[in-house]
Write a structure and sequence with these properties.
By secondary structure, the protein is an alpha/beta fold. Helix content is 40%, strand content 20%. The strands form 3 sheets. Strands 7-8-6-5-4-3-2-1-9 form a 9-stranded mixed β-sheet, with helices on both faces.
């Protein structure tokens, strides 16, 4: 098998942000140590079962930095050792600048980490507070500087759009911050109010922009980031030249990956499976849950259409042995007239306005398959 991606989930946070529906808990140091041992055991077992090697690694969460430097070091050293001589092109660790221990980035660099993703959300401290984020934008700058000092220069910042109290002016301040921060990559995504979160319970009281304002904020963010040298390569992702997220590109290219930890998903040998959202079940050694087959043309097309490059005719022929179905071409012609899609003999792609309503547009393109 060619190398696949590896995702390891760290389900720990110091506190739960009111908008977040990712699986995470507040836990003590003993539980975190027990969890890291379980991750190592599960990783080795599944790597050997499927005879895998990895060329991208991503530690996400939750908040990996909240798991503690020693636990991250333990898992990272195991992964790199088990991977042997296989080159890892990208090794990313997410972190919250408010929960970074002294020497954290130096340890990451020694373990082979060459990219960090830092939760900015907004450079406006009032907006950060409304999102439940601790610390300030200046803490983010300090974290970026510390990572760079340790030799980690590929740095991604998260930026949220359509959040309580956000205006085009405050958005501009946040984008300017991204521009001078030293970041090489920006993930800029619209806030979605998810069921089961505090924001969902208080949704009628939140001062949120309406749909038209959100669309304006999104389009403005795309233009502002482009002016700062971040080109858009996916609905919510922007990068300086050569700094595109290689691990996440595996998802959008429908490539294979292994996920370890509660709520982590995998796609291997044409099958999908996941670990249930329960730390205790995972540490007790629960097996992953089968989630059906994956990787067919419809799924591939749906994921590729998230990318600015879109669905490319040559890629489809190389991968599936047939041309892009005529049904997609017909649907694309209808949507081109609405300014939501661009299409020719080489590829079909969503425009930025199409990205705003991507679920609807992609469903329309694939409806007749």
């Amino acid at each position: 098998m060619k190398p696949v991606g590896l995702y390891i989930h760290f389900p720990f946070c110091a506190a739960k942000c009111p908008y977040c529906d990712f699986y995470s808990i507040v836990s003590d140091e003993a539980a975190k140590s027990l969890y890291s041992d379980a991750v190592v055991k599960a990783f080795i077992g599944m790597k050997n079962k499927y005879k895998l090697s990895f060329d991208t690694i991503y530690f996400g969460g939750g908040t990996p930095s909240a798991a503690g430097t020693e636990n991250i070091r333990k898992i990272a050293e195991c992964v790199m050792s088990e991977n042997g001589c296989q080159d890892v092109s990208e090794f990313t660790v997410e972190c919250n600048p408010s929960f970074v221990e002294p020497g954290f980035f130096e340890v990451l660099a020694k373990c082979g980490v060459n990219r960090v993703s830092i939760g900015l959300q907004s450079a406006i401290d009032g907006e950060r507070a409304a999102l439940g984020r601790s610390g300030s934008a200046s803490d983010v700058l300090c974290a970026v500087a510390e990572a760079q000092k340790a030799g980690i220069t590929n740095i991604s910042l998260d930026l949220m759009l359509g959040i309580p109290g956000q205006t085009l002016k405050s958005l501009e301040e946040s984008v300017n911050f991204c521009g001078f921060s030293g970041a090489t990559h920006i993930s800029a995504y619209l806030l979605k109010i998810e069921k089961g979160t505090p924001f969902f319970e208080m949704r009628d009281k939140l001062l949120l922009p309406d749909e038209d304002e959100c669309a304006e904020i999104y389009l403005s963010a795309c233009e502002m980031l482009e002016e700062k040298g971040f080109h858009q390569y996916e609905i919510s992702n922007f990068a300086r030249q050569g700094a595109e997220g290689r691990h996440n590109l595996k998802y959008w290219n429908c490539d294979e990956y292994l996920g370890i930890g509660p709520s982590a998903h995998s796609f291997l040998n044409g099958s999908r499976f996941y670990f249930e959202r329960c730390v205790s079940a995972f540490t007790d050694g629960a097996a992953p849950v089968p989630d059906g087959a994956g990787g067919d043309f419809s799924e591939y097309a749906m994921l590729r259409l998230r990318l600015s490059d879109g669905l490319r005719a040559k890629d489809v022929i190389d991968r599936f042995g047939f041309a892009v179905p005529k049904e997609i071409e017909k649907a694309a012609k209808r949507l081109c007239g609405l300014g939501l899609v661009e299409s020719d003999s080489c590829k079909t792609r969503l425009t930025r306005r199409g990205f705003i309503v991507s679920n609807m547009v992609i469903s329309e393109l694939l409806a007749d398959l």
